[in-house]
Write a structure and sequence with these properties.
60s Ribosomal Protein L30, Chain: A, YjgF/YER057c/UK114, RutC-like_sf, Endoribonuclease L-PSP, globular, deaminase activity, alpha+beta
Length: about 400
């Protein structure tokens, strides 16, 4: 993994790059650090990302996925109305995720962009599928499906009903492409409004829905993060993003465990995998779910001490990475969710001291259990030689 950082005017970009067989994957984290109005900060960030790509000879069309982390979605929604059109005009078809999770830095907006730079030009294609919330990226024998901004669309204000509806939407969308939630979905993100009140309904709805598609503790679940996050519409209390892969063979998707450090989630009534991996012929993708300071009994460790919680969180992450044959040196990006904004300076100093090179965004987003002060998720890419599977 190669790391790079650059400051362009008031925008700081940190990036990772992994390349095999002339196909590079980049994760860019862009954060604004100025006092401009929201629209000005957004223009600066998008301009900085475009300039970064140009400086490295990467076509704009290589951008596959973007997530916008906002400080105040409801009040910024009007100015955001053109984001999808703008991103499409600059990057071509691209998955766009938008969520209110204020950046812990001073800016109003931060962006994560995922880029596939195919040096074998012409071997990658992107198209927006039905429903319009799906972007399909095809290369080789695989279809990479990014589903974003899934909301229930019904009138219920209950998190249980909305969560069931968004999983139904995702499942139907995959089935319409000849795939299934159970066999093809690798990663989900659940953004929950007022998580302390609404998370239990999401947990119950997900468990019941998974049972209808034969996903139980003795089969497998999906890597996931369930975290505070808001939509512009105050009636939306559950927002879902997902990543799925079509064309995978049996055994290509693995499920990570670290029983000496973390217990299975079903032991405390939650239905997600601690992490998943996807083996390709020339590399392995590793998706670590939202991970916090927890021990092998499911107990919260180091209450009220954010530094010790970070230490334990990264011990857990390293144990999961090790199960996939990887380490922190393979991590391409991290998102750090922080419950108490007064801890942001401490957390940023910790990351700068211990993981300075790894692209990250720190957001203000309460974790699903009040005792946890911080939660971390990450994506890693490692070298691999799997002749049984097609290259990425």
């Amino acid at each position: 993994m190669h790391y790079h950082s650059v400051t362009q005017d008031t925008v700081r970009i940190t990036a990772s790059s992994f390349c095999r067989n002339r196909v590079s994957e980049l994760h860019l984290m862009a954060v604004s650090d100025n006092q401009k109005a929201f629209s000005g900060q957004m223009e600066d960030i998008l301009g900085a990302v475009t300039e970064y790509l140009s400086a490295h000879g990467i076509p704009n069309s290589s951008v596959v996925f973007t997530r916008f982390f906002l400080s105040d979605y409801a009040n910024q929604a009007e100015e955001l109305s053109f984001i999808v059109d703008y991103v499409t005009s600059v990057f071509g078809d691209c998955a766009v995720s938008i969520v209110q999770q204020p950046p812990a830095a001073s800016g109003k907006i931060a962006v994560w962009a995922y880029v596939i730079d195919d040096g074998n030009r012409g071997c990658l294609s992107k198209f927006r599928a039905t429903p319009a919330c799906d972007l399909v990226v095809t290369r080789g024998g695989y279809e990479h499906i990014w589903s974003t901004q899934l909301v229930s669309g019904n009138c219920s204000t209950k998190s249980f009903d909305q969560a069931g509806a968004v999983f139904t939407k995702l499942s139907h969308s995959l089935e319409g492409k000849g795939y299934s939630l159970k066999e093809n979905c690798v990663r989900t993100w659940l953004f929950v409004k007022d998580i302390d009140s609404n998370y239990s309904g999401v947990v119950d709805a997900r468990r019941r829905f998974f049972e209808t598609v034969n996903m139980t503790w003795d089969t497998h679940y999906i890597a996931s993060t369930g975290i505070e996050g808001r939509h512009a519409d105050p009636g939306v209390c559950v927002l879902l993003d997902a990543y799925s892969i079509g064309g995978v063979q049996h055994g290509q998707i693995g499920f990570l465990k670290a029983p000496d450090f973390l217990n299975p989630t079903h032991e405390y009534g939650v239905t997600f995998e601690r992490g998943t991996s996807v083996a390709f012929g020339d590399r392995k993708h590793i998706f670590i779910s939202g991970t916090a300071s927890i021990n092998h009994k499911g107990e919260i460790m180091h209450r009220n001490d954010v530094v010790r919680q970070l230490n334990r969180t990264f011990v857990n992450i390293m144990a999961l990475l090790a199960d996939a044959g990887a380490g922190m040196e393979n991590v391409a990006q991290m998102i750090v969710y922080l419950r108490d904004p007064s801890d942001s300076e401490t957390v940023n100093a910790y990351l700068d001291e211990n993981y300075r090179n790894i692209p990250n965004i720190v957001t203000l987003a309460p974790v699903c259990r009040p005792g946890w002060l911080v939660e971390v998720e990450c994506i890693a890419i490692s070298d691999a030689a799997n002749p049984s599977f097609a290259n990425f």
